[in-house]
Design a protein that fits this description.
The complex is a heterodimer of chains A (179) and B (463). Chain A is of the alpha+beta class and 179 residues long. Chain A contains five helices and four strands. Classes of the chains: A alpha+beta (179), B mainly alpha (463).
Chain lengths: 179, 463
């Protein structure tokens, strides 16, 4: 499906923030914004929900801790019980450090891999670049044109009030990737 | 948008930079050819590394009888170096994770290089226990895998095995933390490079980063999670390292103060190493506007407070020995301060406790040559701390008939020199191929003044 979008470029994060909030208040659908650094407050202006990756972290960490505790118990007390310094075979306190390390390892790798999967980031990916300066000093807001509330002239004037450097129409590629 | 009121805190980035200037300044060293100073430093480091490789080759081929160890002193130079390097790594995590959780924005100027330092220091640390095994080609026996020997599992009750898991987890998580932090900057390099090998490599490694706000939101969440995981991890790693000693029954090792004492010492030595590298990088790479005197000042304060905790631990150890009523414990501490290794003990006390007190003076914290000398001395002192703990506790044990002394052999010294070679070679290469300051983070943290054109535009609007 190809779609028309409006691409507005800004020079300052405050302008982007204000424009995003205003355009969204008017009922426009915001496709995405592109910024050189994490602009705090933009997620609120865009109406994005907090990320659920914390749950991935929690469950991976639990899996690491419980899995390792079970494994330590199984090796030391069931598969080959070995007397170490007269300690009980299933001595739990000495199982804690390794279980903790396993929890951290799995939680860390789990959340990073989930981040890459959800954001579709992988080595060698060639993303369509909306403006090469977006990783340097430009802030870009992308608004969908499909919405019934969309009026090109109104929005262009409105964006100019927020000191947009340029406002242009573009076509999204099939699959929703921005050109 | 009205201008911000005058800030109470000094600005994080000086010199009236715009966002574009920040990118340009930080990427500039990668575009320039290396300076003569860089080549000189690289040649020295590489030589040290080659000496180390030759020494490691020789001792593995011959056996660790090439070391100066004996039946009484079974751990000395190698474990000292291991603990020294792990400790250095810890300040990197402190700066990147703990200061992040405390919202200390000034960390953005130093976190990238501190994280790189962590990575390289942990690599250096890992080499020593590996060689100490004597048969490093059997190192995989430390992994709990189903084997044909029973399967005989590893001993999960041994702190030495906890160490294997702690150090490898620490290395892995530090590497991931560092790489994730690099993603946006790799995309910056991709977008500003001319087509060529640098663009191809950075575009492969940046995983297709495009600065989308949705990705930024998830990225920040994961970064916070990693910081939250790395913080207890760093404490657990040095706690476990200290348990290598504390769970033994050797007087001088068998104390409950070891975990906090080791963690404080680790952060202390690591901050000294970060400061050493920062002061050099700031001068050599023209980053004076980013690594300001404020940064040095704050790190000095942190370092000094850690030094005071370490000093308190030294005192507590003596008090505990006195109060324990245990003759062996008391002997070890008397022997430490007055015995054959008293010179090492007093070097440690003066470098770690006495000399850093100079940093109470604001003027001295702003005099970089003085700071540089102090941090070098702290590095020396912290190496001696580990040496004192290990060797003085071992060399005169319960039976006077088995008392012995210890002197390192040339092979051990060459291995230690080699670890410095590895560390500085990696660090110098890192300075050339990656941005030494987290570009995306410093842009977000430092309230940069607006570009002239914007202000001009604003005035027009107002009129």
């Amino acid at each position: 499906m190809s779609d028309r979008v409006l691409v507005a470029t800004f020079e300052h994060e405050d302008d982007l923030l204000a424009a995003t909030a205003a355009v969204r208040r008017d009922g426009q659908r915001i496709v995405d914004a592109f910024t050189p650094y994490a602009v705090h407050g933009l997620e609120r202006a865009m109406g994005l929900r907090p990320s659920r990756l914390t749950w991935v972290c929690f469950f991976c960490g639990m899996a690491g801790a419980l899995g390792m505790l079970w494994f330590e118990h199984w090796t030391a007390a069931i598969d080959w019980p070995l007397d170490v310094g007269g300690k009980p075979w299933n001595s739990m306190p000495s199982d804690v450090p390794v279980a903790f390390e396993a929890a951290v390892l799995l939680a860390g790798f789990g959340s990073v891999l989930a981040l890459l999967a959800v954001s579709r980031l992988f080595p060698g990916k060639q993303p369509p670049i909306i403006d090469p300066r977006v990783t340097d000093d430009r802030f870009v807001l992308v608004i969908a044109q499909s919405d019934a509330a969309f009026d090109l002239n109104v929005i262009t004037t409105q964006l100019a009030d927020f000191r947009a450097l340029s406002v242009e129409e573009r076509v999204t590629l099939p699959g929703g990737e921005l050109q | 948008m009205p201008d911000l009121p005058p800030l109470l805190r000094p600005p994080l980035v000086t010199g009236n930079k715009t966002l574009g200037d920040v990118t340009r300044d930080i990427c500039a060293p990668m575009d320039r050819r290396p300076t003569a100073l860089w080549w000189g430093a690289f040649a020295v480091s590489l030589t040290a590394l080659l000496i180390g490789i030759a020494a490691v080759w020789y001792q593995i081929a011959t056996g660790i009888g090439t070391w100066g160890l004996n039946k009484t002193v079974g751990w000395a130079f190698d474990i000292t170096n291991f603990v020294f390097w792990v400790g250095i790594g810890h300040a990197g995590t402190l700066i990147s994770a703990v200061l992040f959780l405390f919202r200390q924005k000034w960390r953005t100027a130093v976190n990238r290089s501190a994280e790189a330092m962590t990575l390289f220091a942990v690599m250096c640390a890992g080499i020593f226990p590996l060689i100490h095994m004597g048969r490093p080609w059997l190192a995989f026996w430390m992994a709990p895998y189903p084997n044909t020997r029973g399967p005989l599992w590893v001993n999960f009750k041994s702190p030495l095995l906890w160490d294997v898991f702690a150090i490898s987890t620490y290395l892995a998580i530090s590497a991931v933390f560092w790489y994730i932090g690099l993603l946006p900057d790799l995309a910056t390099i991709r977008d500003r490079s001319e087509p060529g090998w640098r663009k191809r490599i950075s575009s492969f490694l940046c995983l297709g980063w495009n600065g989308s706000a949705r990705t930024w939101l998830r990225y920040e969440t994961v970064y916070l999670l990693l910081a939250g995981l790395a913080t207890p991890l760093v404490f657990s790693v040095h706690t476990i390292v200290s348990m290598d000693f504390a769970t033994a029954v050797i007087p001088g090792w068998h104390t409950t103060i070891f975990p906090p004492y080791f963690v404080a010492g680790a952060i202390f030595s690591g901050l000294a190493m970060v400061l050493t590298l920062m002061i050099i990088a700031r001068a050599v790479m023209q980053l004076k506007d980013y690594i300001t005197l404020t940064h040095i000042d704050r790190m000095c304060k942190l370092m000094m407070s850690m030094g005071c905790i370490v000093g308190l631990a030294y005192g507590t150890e003596f008090f505990t020995a006195f109060y324990s009523g245990n003759g062996y414990e008391q002997f070890v501490f008397k022997n430490r301060a007055l015995g054959p290794f008293a010179w090492a003990y007093w070097t440690m006390v003066s470098c770690n406790v006495l000399i850093p007190q100079l940093l109470w003076v604001r003027k001295l914290r702003a005099t970089l040559p003085v700071v540089f000398v102090i941090v070098i001395l702290v590095n020396v002192g912290m190496w001696f701390e580990r040496f004192v703990i290990i060797v003085t506790s071992l060399h005169r044990d319960f039976l006077p008939s088995s008392w012995a002394s210890y002197t390192p052999t040339a092979i051990e010294i060459a291995t230690f020199v080699g670890s410095f070679g590895l560390f500085f070679t990696c660090f110098l290469v890192f300075c050339r191929i990656a941005p030494v300051i987290a570009i995306a983070e410093i842009k977000g943290a430092a309230h940069l003044p607006k570009r002239q054109a914007v202000e001009h535009h604003e005035e027009e609007q107002a009129a």
